[in-house]
Each structure stands twice: as structure tokens, then as C-alpha cells.
Amino acid sequence: MNDEAFRALSNATRRRGLEVLHECDSPIDLDALPDKSGIYEEPSESFEIVLYHNHLPRLDDTGFIDWDREQGTVVKGPRFDEVRPLLNVDEDSDNPNSLSI
To answer: Does domain 3-86 sit in CATH 1.10.10.10?
Structure first.
């Protein structure tokens, strides 16, 4: 594993966003990301500012996600497989969308 993957996963917001992306095969609408991630019960304007100006650009720059700014969506990037083994997801579950806790 490389340092970029560990840095990306060192933040709870980025880590949970990547876990949500792991569960989805289609683009994720960023308006729905806070609801899907469960990180914040009520997303605030400050959360959106940090998401759009910090977390999404970092993950997009590393290639772990592809962020379509015009459409407001994210999908798995070309380097997503580098972080996949580090995500806290339950690969052996009967439900491929379940997370291990």
C-alpha cells in the first residue's frame, strides 16, 4: 500500500465517502452523500464547504475518485482498487452492501 492511500483513509469523512462509493456501482449524487454516509445527521454549510474544497479535490487528485463537478457526482476513480483492501467493508457478508462494524 502507498502513503497516498493511508492519507486518504486517515480522515473519517474521506474514509466513509470511499466506503459508500465501494457499495455503489453507479455515480453518487453529492447531494445524497451525507445521507448515504451517515457521518452527519444534518449536513451543514460548513460540511459542504470542507467537502467541496478539501476532501473531494484530494480524492480526485489522487485518482481514488472521479469527481464530475458539473454533474455533482462521484464514481470510483482509476486508482480506487488501491484503497479497496483498506476499507472497512464486509466482503464475506451475504449482503454485498453491508459494512462491518
So the answer is: yes
Where do the H-state alpha helices sit in 1-101? 3-9, 12-23, 33-37, 45-50, 56-62, 80-83
The Cα 26–Cα 42 span in angstroms is 24
What residue ranges do the domains of the chain occupy? 3-86
Q: What are the tens digits of pLDDT across the range 21-72?
A: 998 888 988 877 655 555 555 556 777 888 889 999 999 999 999 999 999 9
Instruction: Please tell me the distance from the alpha carbon of residue 86 to that of residue 61, in angstroms, as a whole number.
Output: 19
Three-state DSSP state, 66: strand
Classify residue 35 by its DSSP letter: H
Helix (H, G, I), strand (E, B) or coil at 97: coil
Q: Which residues contact 37 (CB under 8 A, 6 or more apart)?
A: 13, 16, 17, 19, 20
Hey, what's the cell of 43? Answer: 449536513
- For the entire predicted model, the pTM comes to 0.77
